Amino acid sequence: MGVLRFLNAGESHGPALTAIIEGIPSNLEISSDYINRELARRQQGYGRGGRMKIEKDRVEILSGVRFGKTLGSPITLMVRNRDWENWTDIMAVEGQPTDKREITNPRPGHADLPGGIKYGFSDLRNVLERASARETTTRVAVGAVCKKLLEDIGIKIGSYVVSIGELSVRELIQDIPLEERFKRAEESEVRIPVPEEDEKFKKLIDLAKEEGESLGGVFEVFATGVPVGLGSYVQWDRRLDGRIAQAFMSIQAIKGVEIGDGFELSRRFGSQAHDEIFWDRERGFYHRTNRAGGLEGGMTNGEPVIVRAGMKPIPTLMRKKSLHSVNIKTKEPFDAAKERSDVTAVPAAAVVGEAMLAIVLAEAVLEKFGNDNWEDIKKRVEEYRQYTLRY
Ligand SMILES: Cc1cc2nc3c(=O)[nH]c(=O)nc-3n(C[C@H](O)[C@H](O)[C@H](O)COP(=O)(O)O)c2cc1C
């Protein structure tokens, strides 16, 4: 059992999405406003569809917080689905199913078909209601609580988009510091850190939309101010790089995860893949490069943690293109390209990535420094930081 755990629940068109977090220490200051800011960030991005206009997510904190501070007891977070009023009969808890909005046409690239077969459903809505990335709303809410915790001890998390489809700014951002990349990404509708390239990216998204196409891309999430020694090498499931990879791969549509220079390292000579070690009295041990992305031997090494994730194009296509599939009842073929969907959600996925990194790092912090009273834990973190400088 991990020291920090959460479960989330809720269907995409159900009454609400909820999450219960256990393991957040007492006396952490947190507010609904802080969480709502993160929820709003997830809903932004050029190329999102109609649903994001309907939902303006707001959190309700139902337990675990009193007078602005955590109690150490489980925290329940709830986000109501505003769309629910249009779905009360279709998503009713009791009564008989109607065939209204029944889905028997499985969409390629979604959980529809394997989920329907696995759970024995004749209405694939039972699958997609939960498989949908709407679920990531509560991950972002949980991530916000974790971010607040990390922020208190000087760990900052950010993200930016590196590429969408074939368009990439990877070469252009090499010399821009991470926090500056993040600052610029926050100003960009496509979350890229190079404002001059914004229009190009938006045009590509417009073009994809006209063509009834969708787009994937690559984003990076980083954490700065991370102390040395979170995670461990002593057992496979305590290695922090592995835990981060799992957390990112669990995000809908993420198909690849790299840490630091990742796959690029595999193409270099050994001498070009290292981060050499330096020392001075003020900084203690440090590196001048960060090819390892802040992780060595399953532990943080004091440099920023850098995670890169590749997202496939949104599987739902809009009419125009044809996409072969087969009806589960009639076994007749049908065209699965349908009307309404996001063209791309890479900017939003980056925000979800921030939440996942925050959750994994917060757990690693609590494992190392204790998990009861946040006031005590903060002191321990500070003492440890002093010790690492003297080591
Ligand atoms: C933030 C976010 C938004 C998404 N929006 C959509 C969408 O509007 N339409 C869609 O078909 N897929 C969307 N997806 C992707 C699907 O949820 C995902 O591809 C699908 O559940 C199948 O899972 P898999 O790709 O991980 O195998 C989105 C994913 C994320 C992370």
Can you walk me through this structure?
The chain is α+β, with helices and mostly antiparallel strands. It has a single domain, classed as Chorismate synthase, AroC fold. The protein is built from ten helices and 18 strands. It has helices spanning 32-42, 51-54, 112-119, 125-131, 136-152, 178-187, 198-210, 240-249, 346-369, 374-390; strands at 5-9, 16-22, 26-29, 59-63, 65-66, 69-71, 75-80, 156-164, 167-168, 217-224, 254-259, 277-280, 284-287, 295-296, 299-300, 305-311, 324-326, 333-335. It has a five-stranded antiparallel sheet with strand order 9-8-10-16-11. A four-stranded antiparallel sheet has the order 1-2-7-4, with helices on one face. Strands 3-6-5 form a three-stranded antiparallel sheet, with no helix packed on it. Helix 1 packs across helix 5, helix 3 packs across helix 4 (125-131) and helix 5 crosses helix 9. It is globular, with a radius of gyration of 22 Å. The two termini are 32 Å apart. Bound molecules: flavin mononucleotide. Residues 49, 109-111, 131-133, 136, 251-253, 312, 314-316, 341-342, 345, 348-349, 352 line the site of flavin mononucleotide.
Order of helices and strands: EEEHHEEEEHHHEEHHEHEEEEEEEEHH
Query: What is the arithmetic mean of pLDDT?
Result: 95
What do we call the CATH topology? Chorismate synthase, AroC fold
Oligomerization status of the protein chains: single chain
Please give the count of helices. Answer: 10
**Total beta-strand segments:** 18
Alpha carbon gyration radius: 22 Å
Strand order of the largest sheet: 9-8-10-16-11
| Morphology call | globular
Tell me the name of the CATH homologous superfamily.
Chorismate synthase AroC
How many independent structural domains? 1
| Second-tier CATH architecture | 4-Layer Sandwich
Describe the main β-sheet briefly.
5 strands, antiparallel
Helix/strand-derived class?
alpha+beta
